[in-house]
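User: Predict the structure for this protein chain, please.
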Amino acid sequence: MSFTDKLSCGLAVMLINSLLPKPNPDLPIANDS
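Assistant: Here is the predicted structure, written as structure tokens:
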């Protein structure tokens, strides 16, 4: 997978995650920072 493919895939995931409802914002994955 090329860099541009990874970038576009990452942007798509971010877009989908921003559109999906968050029933549980306290997931450990969300608090990774």
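Residues 8 and 30 are 21 Å apart (CA to CA).
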